[in-house]
């Protein structure tokens, strides 16, 4: 476990602002309720309903999930190729909470923080505060899946101990305490897959924390001044993963910028510019400008733009209702008097609009353009559903009288249409093949 020295500076100040905003956003988002009464963000897995920024999504909308995952993947490729591991140093929870744990440890233990001879009582006080923070963070993480209001009532009334969310919160509390408190930078160096991706996503033009070896090398040797690097090793002392940035780009570098602030402070005493900063390798070697537009970034940008356009089109044209239709296999279509066919169909209908809606069911013979009588048990086949409500129906379809030619066709291509009466343009059509019984 590495306890790095704290370092103030411009990068540190900017990171404090960004990290404070992200923590505040993380802690507040689960509590926000929209005017419609739905949560801003709620991934309700047991009910298979996902509330996102006023929209209600369900697992059956696989294309939207595909667009979301593709957007995340291409964003990772694009931003890493352009600005390096900015996520690791500025937005990753591992980095943010490790910073927070370190601040608490230093505030209580001061110079004894991270040392074996730290006072017993103060050391375990630090551990206790770490556990409280881990619980608060885990509580809010589970709050993205279960109502935080419901969980808070459960804890206050001591009724949460039999609930599933209690055990998940307990698990993540322990996991976070162990990970952030003791595993720390080892996760970044040995377990995080993103650290491995950087070697193929970044190139010599990527803007990242880099050492200016052209100016710095060879380093000062004793009193003999060679390059600008004075060999103070402050960049190593303040590094949270314990690497030496002067050895070049490494898996362990999370681009937090602490070495930039340290080198800036030391070089200011020499009245020189920092040797470590946000540069590209090509910029250091050629003293030219950063090449932002290059085949790699252009291709990623084009692909990301295409995916965002496709996702936007899908969301704009999305019909906020769902219907699954399946023929009843145990009750095949039958021939009734007057040469009519009666079929039995199971429907599962869900309103995925943020407000309650009224719906109507119709059925048609798509080959001959005839209407098929549908009996659903609802008056005029109309019914209302609240937001997210699911309705299961067993409906009976009955055709008009068929001619001998139509009976000999073997099947009737039918369609069940679900229409939103509040928005008549919203329709879902499910095609069913009504197999005619043998005579």
Brief characterization of the structure:
With 439 residues, this protein is an alpha+beta fold. 42% of the residues lie in helices and 20% in strands.
Write the layout of secondary structure elements.
Elements: H1 10-28, E1 41-44, E2 49-52, E3 55-57, H2 62-83, H3 86-90, H4 93-109, H5 120-142, H6 148-156, H7 164-183, H8 185-191, H9 193-201, E4 208-211, H10 213-216, H11 234-237, H12 258-269, E5 276-279, H13 281-286, H14 295-316, E6 321-327, E7 334-336, E8 340-351, E9 357-365, E10 370-375, E11 382-385, E12 390-398, H15 404-407, E13 411-420, E14 427-435
Antiparallel strand pairs: 1-2, 2-3, 4-5, 6-8, 7-8, 8-12, 9-10, 9-11, 9-13, 10-12, 13-14
Description:
The chain has helices at residues 10-28, 62-83, 86-90, 93-109, 120-142, 148-156, 164-183, 185-191, 193-201, 213-216, 234-237, 258-269, 281-286, 295-316, 404-407, and strands at residues 41-44, 49-52, 55-57, 208-211, 276-279, 321-327, 334-336, 340-351, 357-365, 370-375, 382-385, 390-398, 411-420, 427-435. The strands form 3 sheets. Strands 6, 7, 8, 9, 10, 11, 12, 13 and 14 form a 9-stranded antiparallel beta sheet that branches. It has a 3-stranded antiparallel beta sheet with strand order 1-2-3, with no helix packed on it. With 439 residues, it is an alpha+beta fold. A hairpin with a 4-residue loop joins strand 1 and strand 2. The chain is built from 15 helices and 14 strands. The termini are far apart. 26% of the residues are buried. The chain is 42% helix and 20% strand. Helix 2 runs antiparallel to helix 14 and helix 4 packs antiparallel against helix 5.
């Amino acid at each position: 476990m590495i306890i790095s020295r704290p370092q103030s500076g411009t990068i540190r100040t900017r990171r404090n602002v960004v990290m404070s905003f992200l923590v505040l956003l993380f802690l507040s988002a689960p509590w926000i309720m929209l005017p419609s009464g739905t949560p801003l963000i709620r991934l309700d897995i047991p009910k298979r309903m996902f509330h996102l920024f006023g929209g209600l999504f369900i697992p059956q909308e696989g294309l939207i999930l595909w667009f979301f995952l593709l957007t995340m993947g291409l964003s990772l490729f694009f931003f890493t190729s352009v600005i390096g591991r900015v996520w690791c140093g500025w937005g990753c929870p591992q980095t943010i909470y490790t910073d927070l744990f370190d601040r608490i440890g230093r505030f209580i233990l001061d110079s004894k923080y991270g040392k074996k001879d730290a006072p017993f009582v103060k050391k375990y006080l630090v551990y206790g505060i770490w556990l409280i923070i881990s619980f608060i963070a885990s509580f809010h993480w589970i709050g993205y899946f279960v109502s935080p209001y419901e969980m808070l009532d459960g804890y206050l009334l001591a009724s949460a101990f039999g609930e599933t969310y209690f055990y998940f919160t307990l698990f993540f509390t322990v996991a976070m305490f162990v990970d952030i408190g003791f595993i720390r930078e080892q996760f970044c160096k040995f377990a995080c897959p993103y650290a491995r991706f950087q070697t193929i996503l970044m190139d010599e033009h990527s803007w990242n924390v880099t050492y200016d070896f052209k100016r710095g090398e060879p380093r000062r040797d004793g009193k003999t001044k060679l390059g600008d690097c004075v060999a103070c090793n402050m960049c190593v002392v303040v590094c949270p993963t314990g690497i030496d940035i002067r050895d070049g780009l490494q898996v362990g570098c999370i681009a937090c910028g602490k070495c930039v602030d340290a080198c800036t402070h030391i070089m200011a005493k020499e009245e020189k510019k920092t040797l470590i900063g946000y540069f590209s390798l090509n910029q250091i070697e050629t003293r030219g400008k950063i090449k932002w537009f290059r085949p790699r970034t252009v291709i990623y940008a084009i692909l990301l733009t295409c995916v965002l356009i496709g996702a936007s089109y899908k969301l704009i044209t999305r019909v906020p209702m769902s219907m699954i239709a399946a023929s009843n296999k145990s009750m095949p279509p039958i021939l009734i008097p007057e040469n009519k066919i009666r079929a039995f169909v199971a429907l599962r209908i869900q309103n995925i609009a943020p407000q309650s809606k009224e719906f109507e069911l119709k059925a048609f013979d798509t080959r001959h353009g005839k209407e098929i009588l549908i009996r659903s048990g609802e008056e005029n086949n109309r019914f209302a559903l609240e937001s997210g409500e699911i309705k299961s129906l067993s409906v009976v379809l009955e055709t008009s009288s068929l001619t001998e030619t139509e009976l000999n066709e073997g099947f009737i291509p039918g369609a069940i249409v679900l229409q939103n009466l509040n928005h008549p343009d919203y329709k879902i059509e499910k095609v069913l093949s009504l197999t005619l019984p043998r005579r």
